[in-house]
Structures are given as structure tokens and as C-alpha cells.
Amino acid sequence: MKTQLFLSMLSLGLLTYCIPNQQTGEDNPGPTTPAVTGLKQLAPFPMGAAVNVSLLKTRPAYEQTVATEYNSLTAENAMKFASLHPAQTTYTWSDADYIVTYAQQHNARVHGHTLVWYKSLPSWVTGFQGDSAAWENLMKTHIQTVVTHFKGKVASWDVVNEAFEDNGTLRNSVWRQHLGPDFIARAFQYAHEADPAALLFYNDYGHEWGPTKRTAILNLVNGLKSRGIPIHGIGLQMHTNSNRADSNLATAINTAAQTGLKVHIAELDIAMNPDKTAGLAFTPAIAAAQKAKYKAIVQAFKALPAAQRFGITTWNVGDADTWIRGSCSCSDWPLPFDDNYQRKPAYDGIVEALQ
Prior knowledge:
The protein contains 15 helices and eleven strands. The chain is of the alpha/beta class. The strands form two sheets. The protein has an eight-stranded parallel barrel, surrounded by five helices. A two-stranded antiparallel sheet has the order 1-2.
């Protein structure tokens, strides 16, 4: 009887024994949970997301997903002109610095977005009065102040973003109006002077639509390269949708690689309600179609030469965070994680393509 009592007490002790947490020294109510494998462990190239600073700070599920899944971060808005340089003599670094510090703590790369764009400009720029020399100084000072601030911390930059209209003509932005069409080349030169080690990208959307805009972009990039302008990569935003043929997506990726530059799928999301149908529900059929589309994109990218695969970056993290819902005021689910940061079939499509 005493033996049975002793064994019962011993079993109870083993069941209730708490294993110390090696990181905190505190007791855990049982064995530690194995680390979750994320996309960054599965991919042979960097997997990234554009991140919102406020969500990164305040939404634990968002932050945990970023930490688990990604090893490359892009600032969704915090490094755009209006965010960093709201007044002519004022720079606000805090949000961008937060992302950089977070990335350093999590062994993630930072891709800077973006130095020169026709949008997200503060009123002091859009209303700036000055001759071409003053405008040149404005652009150069902004680029070099920003790149110098992040030198050695930001690995790469979208130097110029969306310089072309959808029909392939050069956009009549304030930069072109005041500096002429070759402002693009000079922007790259100024960025390179500020940080010779940073990789410099031209970034745009619409490569997968067809040859019109894509050809204009490729001609620009190849022209810069042939002139010895310091350009290292081409960014395909890849804001695409369920109606876009897989062959178009593959052609966009492969023709970008034919430049010999690094290729970045820079702002990936796949809209599943391209017709903006009111009340559309996310059905298993829609989920399966999205899974197949993500898989096709990742497979095409993975087939590129390893040296040219700069990485794949989704534009934000979960469906709750997407810009698409705000732009169309409709239901949509364009990202690999749902509103609660749970992995969707789209995520499985990425994983299958990486295997």
C-alpha cells in the first residue's frame, strides 16, 4: 500500500513539474513549443512583407506573423517622401528607424521604398517655386540625406517608382516637368554616391499586363545599364488579380530577368474580386484559385538564376491590412494570411512552389 502511494505521488509530481524557460528563467506549464517554420526557412531567397509601423507596434498577431514568416522588410509608407521629409528643413526618422531596428533585431533585410515617386509628396514640394537648378538641388538633397541616414542599414532602394503611364509613355510628374526625362538616371547616380554598397532598383507595376508598358520599362532599364548608370535590379510590383493569365505572369518575370539585373517581386498581392462585386464571399473555389495563382508566381520566380532572385515581398501581411479594400470599398482577400493572420490556401500554394 505504501509503495502504491509513493508511486502515485511520484507520478503526480512529474505531471505538475514545470520546466524552466531558458530565455526568461520563469516556469512554463509544460514542455516548450517547437518553433514554427515560416516562409523564410523554406525559401532559397528572401521572403518579405511591406509593414505598417503602427500595426507592428500594436497588433501582436501581426508582429508575430512578421517575425515568424519574413526575413526582408519594406516600409509600407514610413520611407516615402511625405513621411520622411514633411517640411523643407525637417526630416522625421522615428517610424522608419523603428522598422530598421526591428529588422536588425530579427535578422531581416530592409528594402527602402521609395526615394522618387510622383505621389506621397508634401505640399512644400508640390508647391515649390524654383528654377531647374533649385529643383535639382531639392531632389539630390532629399535622396542623399535619406540614403546617408540609412547607410549600412538599408540594403537596397526603390530609387525611382512608377515613372511610366499605363500606355508606356513617361509620366508627366513634377520631376519630369522641372528636371526633364533624364532625372531618373541622375536619381540613381545621387543614391549611389550616398551609399555605394546599396543595391538600386527601378520599381513599377503593369509588367504582367502585356508588352506595351513592359517594353517601355525594359527599354529604360536596359538604357540605364548600357550607359553605366548604377542600377542593380528591377522591381515588379505584381499587384495582380485572379483574371491575369499565368503565362502573362511568367513572361513578366522572365523578361525582367533577361536584363541581367536582379529581380524583385516587390509588392505582391492577388485580388480575388477584380470586378468589385458587392457582397462577394470568399468561397473554397476562390481560395483554390488564389492558391494556384500564388503557386504559379512563386514557381516562375524560383526558376530564375539564383543570383538574380532578390526576393518576393507581399504588400502587407494579412487581408485586414490590404490597401485594396480601401481602394475599391469592396470585399477582397489578396494576401496569404486572413484577417486573423491565419495561413490561407494561398500560403500553401507558396509552400508547394518552394518545395
